[in-house]
Amino acid sequence: MSNTNLSDCATPEATAQAEGGEIITAFGELPPKTLLTKKALAGILHVTEKSVERRVDKGELPCAMRMGRKDWWTVEAITEHTARRLCEALADRERLAKKII
Predict the structure, then answer these.
(1) What is the DSSP letter of 25?
(2) Cβ distance 27 to 78 under 8 Å?
(3) What is the number of other CB atoms lying within 10 angstroms of the CB of residue 48?
(4) Percent of the chain clearing pLDDT 70 (strictly above)
(5) How far is CA 56 from CA 14, 51, 97, in A?
(6) CA–CA separation, 67 and 14 (whole Å)
(7) CA 57 to each of CA 44, 49, 51, 80, 101: distance values in angstroms, whole numbers, following the listed order
(8) In terms of Cα–Cα distance, which of 47, 43, 3, 48 is closest to 26?
(9) What pLDDT was estimated at residue 25?
């Protein structure tokens, strides 16, 4: 079981600035079964821990697993959730395009 902390996730190598936004590469660099705390996830996303909570509430991030006193996510759960959301967004866009035509 891997464990990572904020300093491991928020390295310059893990996040590259791109024109118009950020490219977050940390999820691709970490093993899929790596466990992330809310603090580590917030560090990777460059948001507060409260923002992570709000993103979970809105469905933008998957629900966490509670272990002890902390919430935990795996890198795999986050990337799979993101991939599903991207597929859903593409399907929605295609349905909308068919309605317009």
Answers:
(1) -
(2) yes
(3) 12
(4) 77
(5) 22, 9, 29
(6) 26
(7) 19, 13, 10, 17, 35
(8) 43
(9) 86
pLDDT digits over 9-26, tens only? 444 444 444 444 567 888
One-letter identity of residue 56:
V
pLDDT in tens, 25-38: 889 999 999 999 99
Which among 89, 65, 87 has a CA at the least distance from the CA of 76? 65
Distance of CA 71 to the CA centre of its chain: 14
Query: CA–CA distance from 35 to each of 29, 63, 64, 67, 75 (Å)?
Result: 13, 13, 10, 11, 7
